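Hi everyone, sorry if this is the wrong subforum. Our group has a chain we'd like a structural model of before ordering constructs, and none of us has done structure prediction before. Sequence below.
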Amino acid sequence: MLEDVVSEFNLTWGDKQKVRLELVKWETHSRPSFGEDAQDVINKQVGDSYDIFLGIMWGRFGTPTARAESGTEEEFARAHQRLRDGDNVQIMFYFKDAGIPPSQLDGEQIVKVQAFQKQIADEFGGLYQQFETTEEFQTKARIHLSKVVQDWLDSNAGAIESKTVSTQNEPELDDYNPLANLTALENGDAEEGIIDLVDRGADAMDEVVQIVNRMGEATTDLGQKFVQRTEEANAISAAGGTPDRKSAKRVVNSAANDLDVFVKRMSVEIPEFYKQNGIFTESFSAVAMISEHDANEDAEDVKNALNSMQEYRTAIESSSQNLIEFRQTLTEIPRATTTFNQARRRAVAIMDDLLTLMRVAASQSKDIENLLLRLLKTDGDEAQ
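Answer:
Right subforum, don't worry. Here is the predicted structure as tokens:
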């Protein structure tokens, strides 16, 4: 999950700030060898020469080592010991808070993960972050890594400047390319400017707003249909005498059909919402990753990005609240026919899918807002 974030970071910051990130993993930075156990081999080969420790857990705590309950716990303990010893290592831990497939469910492992999560907060004094999707994690990682590196640049500005030396070596005649600089640019990755990123993000945001409006209309239409079905049911009851079961069943099944129409409409909109929200957050998180120097030069565009992000998050949170209230109303309707019960379960399920996406979208927006505020050196409080 981190490879794309690191590559994007290096493209954005590498040449301008002369700082690059290298993703160190045992899969890529260790080789077959022997020691007390496999983790001991990793410890010796990878070592402690990193500046940022980033841990991720979900449903598995890991395999015990001779020194800890899992390799991840041991690596975290080594990083935390460095921190206690005065080393300036940055530790960031993330827990995935999402459903686990039944085939991968291990109750004992989950209990250990939850205990470790509590231990980080209570015993180690740590603040961890949670995420639900890969995209949400990547957004958080972009924002948090940018903060760490910007702080490092600020605190080491003098040292970096004093160590920056311009060197030019005469090229070998056989290797000389008279258009070397142009060739390097043409072969390199394209670097999007702030204006391009803001425009692309704004276009995606417009699409998302339209999608949210259409989903709101679908919810309103369903609510009106239910009012109509309620009136039809009341008319049957008001007729007196023995209730007409066939007529009542016809009304209930009509309500079930209304629910199925709603599910079909939402099934079309939700994947597009997911797609456009991804473009939107990716664009604005890229804006948030720029250096403070660049932000000052393009302050107006950064302000526009911040305003768009705040408006978007407000709209998402408002729509989420309306959907939560409607979902509650739907679940309180008494059980009726099998057809209706099945249709209601489908409608509730798709509402839950949408609420999850909206919750993630709001969380991503808040993280990006906070870094945009930092870039602009806003004196007010961070986004709430």
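For your construct planning: The domain at 3-155 is CATH 3.40.50 (Rossmann fold). The CA atoms of residues 204 and 279 lie 6 Å apart.
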